[in-house]
Structure formats: C-alpha cells, structure tokens
C-alpha cells in the first residue's frame, strides 16, 4: 500500500526569478506589438520636419509619449483607441473647395481611417477604434461659418461613416461634451473652462515653436481665404484681420484639444497638423497631399490617372481637370495625364 501522503506529486513553487523572467518576456512581447501598431501610425505621419531622420525611421523617443497607452490596451485586450480632432466644416473659400457638404475628399479620408483600423486588427485581434472629435462648432463663429452649415456637414459625414461600414469610427462633438446648451453658450463655456487668453497665446507664438508653427499654418489659410471673402479690404487690412482671426482659431483649437485630452485621457492623440517627432500628438495624413497642411475640408480630390491626391480647387481647374458629379453633387476632379507631384 502506498504510504500515507503518497499520491499526487508535489509541485515546487516557481522560483521568483523565473516568474520575473516570464513577466519580463510578456511585457517585452506587448511592447514589441505596441511598437508595431505605432509604426502603422507613423507611416502616415504628418511631419513638422520631413528632413529629420525620425521621419523615415522612428526612434525610441518617437514611441515614448504613446507606448504605455498602447500597452495598457493590449494588457486588457481592448481595441486601441485613437482620437483625432478633425472634420470641422468645409472652408467658405470656393477657390479651395467645391461646396459646403462632404465630397470625395471626406469619403477617401474616412475610408483611410477605417483602413488604418483594419491594419491594426491584422496585428492585434481586437483592432483599433477611432473617435473623430469634430470641431466645426468650436470655431464656426470665428471663421464666419453658420452653425447650420456645420450641422449639414456633420450629417453628411455620418452618412459616409455609415456607408464605409467598418464599425471602427465614431464622432464626438461640442454638443456631446456640453449637452442641453445653445452653440454660443457652449463656445463661451469651452473658452471659460479651457482657453488661455489671447495675450498668452501671442507670447506662446513668440516663444514656443509648436504654437508658432500652428499659428503660421492657420494664418496662411486665413489670409488665402480673406483674399476671396473680403476683396473690399486693402492688403494691410486683410493681413491684420487675418492675424486676429488666426489667434482666435488657435485659442479655440487649443481649448478643444484640452477638453478632448481630458475626456479621452487614455487614448492615443492624433492631429491633422504637422507635429514634431517626439510630440505627445502624432501628425496624421488623411490623404496624399500637395502640401503638409492641406486637409479634405480645405481642398478637393484630384484623380490624376494614377492616384488620388488633395489639391486646391483653383489648382485643379488651372491644369484643366474636369469636375465629376456623383449623386447630383460635385464630387472631385479627373485629369488624364499626371502633372502634379505630392510632397
């Protein structure tokens, strides 16, 4: 007969150093996967300095602001969540865009966001989800865009998201952040709770390269628009008006960015503006463009016979591209022979 206590063999406890090695291996594996996911985003990176070596080969400092966030999603087997303040409303400048509603530019951009989420799912089964933090109502008053036009643009955007049908893209707006209020009251509260003074922003433009870069990009857009929208003003008057508007847009945009960061504190932050390589935001190209600042709401799609790219409407017309209509609305331009190179 077996002795008392005989039977199932005793299992020795795992030595602490072996368990630590196993944990380290798991952490390293998750970090490697997180880096692979981030590399997918960096392939679309909208860089503030395309000549920097990090533009072609991200370094550990490029990953650092985002890596722990991605790892936390992997550890809990949740979809990687990204947020991008974008898709506000069409520019009022008809030398840039076709109209006030979404067109082929938005369709391709939404499809590109869904494609990115699909690529993440090929590496990581739960995939990724993308929240578009639509900021049209944030500065529609500053840019002279009626709130009704922003609503119309948003409704068209929802139809496009539904038509793409990937299920990875959602919308979040000022009405979601502050329900039950009027638009003016929402903007007033946003600025009161999250904005810096215009004087502080002027000081930042002088001292902070990122703020200066953002201001210069917005100012350039506003000047271009005001040439068309305010032809009665002199060049000096337009320049002064444009500078004041640009400061206000930066103020509103930064306030919205702070609200988004607070609301989605665990999400990876994307930006449609060029960003420094080690920033806490990843500049993100929605479509191939002719310059680093062009967006679907400031341009049109040109099919040059080999690929799609974003250009300004006037540029497409100047080279003889033909306007294409879809569903009784202007959609994009077509050119038989490629003549424009993207930057």
Characteristics:
single chain, 343 residues, 5-stranded parallel beta sheet, 4-stranded mixed beta sheet, 11 helices, 9 strands, 12% strand, Isocyanide_synthase_DIT1, L-tyrosine/L-tryptophan isonitrile synthase family protein
Structure description:
InterPro entries: Isocyanide_synthase_DIT1. It comes from Nocardia suismassiliense. This is L-tyrosine/L-tryptophan isonitrile synthase family protein. The chain is α/β, with parallel strands linked by helices and 343 residues long. It has one domain: 3-Layer(aba) Sandwich (Rossmann fold), CATH 3.40.50. 49% of the residues lie in helices and 12% in strands. The strands form 2 sheets. It has a 5-stranded parallel beta sheet, with helices on both faces. Strands 7-6-9-8 form a 4-stranded mixed beta sheet. It starts with 15 loop residues before the first helix and ends in a 9-residue tail after the last strand.
The proportion of residues forming helix, as a percent range, comes to 40-55%
Number of helices: 11
Low-confidence region ranges: 1-12, 17-25
Strand proportion: 5-15%
CATH class: Alpha Beta
Radius of gyration: 24 Å
Structural class category:
alpha/beta
Mean pLDDT: 89
Name the overall outline.
Answer: globular
Overall number of domains: 1
How do the strands of the widest beta sheet line up side by side?
3-2-1-4-5
In whole angstroms, the N-to-C terminal distance is 84 Å
Name of the CATH architecture: 3-Layer(aba) Sandwich
Can you count the beta strands?
9
- Series of H and E elements: HHEHEHHEHHHHHEEEEHEE
CATH topology: Rossmann fold
Instruction: Tell me about the largest β-sheet.
Output: 5 strands, parallel
């Amino acid at each position: 007969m077996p002795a008392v206590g005989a039977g199932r063999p005793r299992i020795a406890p795992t030595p602490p150093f072996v368990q630590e090695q196993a944990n380290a291996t798991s952490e390293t594996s998750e970090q490697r996967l997180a880096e692979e996911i981030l590399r997918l985003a960096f392939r679309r990176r909208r860089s503030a300095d395309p000549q920097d070596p990090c533009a072609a080969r991200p370094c550990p400092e490029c990953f650092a602001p985002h890596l722990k966030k991605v790892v936390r999603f992997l550890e809990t087997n949740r979809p990687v969540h990204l947020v991008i303040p974008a898709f506000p409303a069409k520019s009022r400048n008809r030398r840039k865009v076709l109209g006030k509603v979404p067109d082929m530019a938005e369709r391709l951009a939404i499809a590109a966001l869904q494609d990115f989420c699909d690529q993440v799912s090929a590496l990581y089964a739960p995939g990724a989800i993308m929240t578009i933090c639509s900021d049209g109502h944030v500065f529609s008053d500053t840019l002279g865009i009626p709130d009704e036009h922003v609503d119309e643009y948003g409704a068209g955007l929802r139809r496009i998201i539904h038509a793409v049908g990937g299920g990875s893209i959602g919308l979040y707006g000022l009405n979601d952040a502050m329900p039950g209020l009027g638009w003016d009251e929402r903007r007033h509260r946003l600025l009161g709770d999250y904005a810096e003074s215009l004087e502080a922003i002027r000081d930042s433009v002088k001292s902070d390269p990122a703020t200066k870069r953002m201001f210069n990009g917005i100012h350039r857009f506003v000047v271009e628009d005001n040439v068309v929208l305010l032809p009665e003003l002199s060049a000096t008057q337009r320049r002064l008006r444009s500078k004041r508007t640009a400061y206000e847009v930066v103020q509103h945009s930064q306030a919205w960015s702070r609200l988004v960061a607070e609301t989605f504190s665990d999400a990876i932050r994307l930006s449609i503006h060029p960003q420094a390589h080690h920033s806490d935001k990843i500049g993100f190209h929605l479509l191939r463009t002719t310059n680093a600042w062009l967006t679907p709401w400031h341009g049109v799609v040109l099919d040059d016979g080999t690929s799609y790219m974003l250009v300004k409407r006037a540029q497409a017309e100047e080279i003889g591209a033909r306007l294409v209509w879809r569903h009784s609305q202007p959609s994009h331009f077509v050119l038989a022979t490629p003549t424009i190179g993207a930057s």
